[in-house]
Amino acid sequence: MDLATVIGLGLALVGIIGGNVLEGGNPAALINLPGFMIVVLGSLGATMISQPLANITALPKSLMKAFMGPPKHNSAETVELFVNMADKARREGLLALEADVDQIHDSFTRKGVQLMIDGTDPELLREIMEIDAESTKHRNEQGAGALEFMGGIAPTIGVLGAVLGLMGVMGHLDEPEHIGPGIATAFVATFYGVATANVLWLPLAKKLINNSKIEQHALAVVIEGLMSIQAGDNPRIVREKLEGFLDPAQRQSKDGPEGGAAHKEAA
To answer: pTM to 2 decimals?
Structure first.
C-alpha cells in the first residue's frame, strides 16, 4: 500500500469537509444522489467515448496500481546482483550464470539475463529490452490518460449538473421557500465535479505517471547492467556505471568491505 496516496487522500477529505464544518456548513448537505450520478456516470461515459474499451476495463487495475505504489524494484539490490554476476562471468564465463537465472525473481531481469547467456547480439539484446520497457511504459500511460481525461471533464459535467438543477428550481419560482435549498442542491453537482477532478482523478493520474517513471528508471539499470556484463566490464566498472543511477545515499562506499572486495576481484 502506498501510504502517501492514502494519507494524502485522507488529508484532502479532512481539509475539505472539516473546512466546510468550520464555516458552518452541514456535511450531510454534500450528499446528493442525482448530482453524484450526473458527475460520476457522466464523466465515466464521456471517458468511454474518448478511450478504447480496453483502457476503460483496465481502469480498476490502474487505480489499484495508484494505491499500491510502483512495482517493487530495488535498484541498489539490482546493482549488487549485476556486480556479482560480472565477477562470476569474468571468472567462469557467461554460461556459468545459467545456474543463477531461476533465482532472479524479476521477470524483466530474468529475461535479459537469459538472452545474454544465449549469446544474443548486444545491439539486438538492448533493442529487445528497450522495446519491452517501452511497452510497459505505454501500458502505464494508458491508465493515466483515461484518468486525466476524467479529471478534465468532471468539472464541466458538474456545471452541467448545476444547470440541470437550476432549471428545476426555475420551474418552481412560485414556491419561494424551495428556491434556496434548490439552488444549494444544484451546486452540489459542481462540488462533485471539481472535488473528484482535483482530489481523485488528476492526482491519481499523476501518481501513475510518477510510478511509471520510477519503474522506467529501474528498468534502465537492468539494461545497462546487461550491456556492461556482456561487454566484459570488470565488477568495479559495473558498479561505477550502475551506481550512477542511484541516489548518493544508496551508493556503496568504495572503501567499504564490499567495495574493497570488488576492487580486489577486479584487480
So the answer is: 0.81
